[in-house]
Structures are given as C-alpha cells and as structure tokens.
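User: I'm preparing a small set of examples for a lab meeting where we compare how different chains pack in three dimensions. I only have the primary sequence for this one, and I'd like the structure in token form so I can line it up with the others. Please keep the answer compact; I'll paste it straight into my notes.
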Amino acid sequence: MATRLEYLPDEILLIICQYLSQAEIIHAFLGLNYRLNCTISHYTKLLIINCEQTRKLLPIIGHYLNSLTIKQMNLSSDEICLALNIQELTFIHTQPDTIPELNNLTDLNIITGPSFQSIDFLFSKTNNLHSVYIASTSPLTIPILVPKQISTIKQLAVTLQSSEDFIRLLSLCPELTCLNLILQNCKLEK
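Assistant: Understood. Below is the structure token output for the 190-residue chain.
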C-alpha cells in the first residue's frame, strides 16, 4: 500500500521533524501546501543565525519571522532587513554595525563581550522599541552633547559608567517604567 506524505496526520509529521534540522524542514516542507505551511509554522517564526547554513534561511523565511537571533556572525543591515516583520532582535557576541529601522521591532537584546557603544538605535524615527537589554563587559557611555531627541523606550537594562551618565539617560528616556542599571563608578556626595 502506497501512502502519500499528505495523508500522514500532523502529529506524525511533527515527530518526523524532530529528527531534522530547521534548514531541512524549511527546504523540505515550506511552500508545498497550506496545511504543511501551518504544520511547520513554528519553525518559521524564530531563527538563530549561527552558521552559514542558517544564514541562507533568512531570504527564505525572513518575512515569516517574529524573532531573529544573530550569534557570533556579522550580518549587514540589508540582510537583517530581510526579516522586516520581526518583533525581537538579539545579538549574541556580535557587534552590530548598525541596527536597521524595523517598524515592528519592540524588543532588542545585545549581549556582547567587549563593548557596545552606540546609542543611535534609541532614536530611530520609526522606532517602536519597548524593551532594550544591553549586556556588556564595558559600560555604555552617554555623550554629554546628546541630540535633542527623546526615546520612547519603557524598559531598559544597561551598564553605565557613572551617575552623570545615569542622569543623561533619564533625560533621554523619560518614558522609562522599568530600569535595570549597573553603575561602574558611583560617587556619593556628602
């Protein structure tokens, strides 16, 4: 008795998928029909790019993604823009050159080793960022002459150099409702 793949129940297909990589699942099942697209949809919502094989998936599933994680890889701004609809963007041990303007981006996580110095992403014109987490071994420096822009970020986790940076940060992000702050140098006046 010959059986077609389409006759298998979704549960069996998902068991088969457990033995395949995300790339194999995308290449084998995506775009075959509506039912298979729905069955494998959770494989197209999240992508962790940590090698060339997963990097090649970005043009294929970029418009489906809700979450993109870039781990120890350098992606250009144009490549990241392939995931135009993402809500969460994470950089792990990667120094992003620029963070493109993504209209749906609400959560940004930057976990770097040495340092992360840019605060430009706080002031993106089409910025809908709600939550930003920056973990770095060196503190973020807020420049004294900050542009007269205001950030709409509500949740922020960051390490700063000094209490002066903290005061500047508060003036830049007046809508903060949750702040997780580490101060490297804290001078208390008597």
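A couple of notes for your slides: The two ends are 87 Å apart (CA to CA). The beta strands are 46-49, 67-71, 88-92, 107-111, 131-135, 155-162, 178-185.

User: Perfect, thanks.
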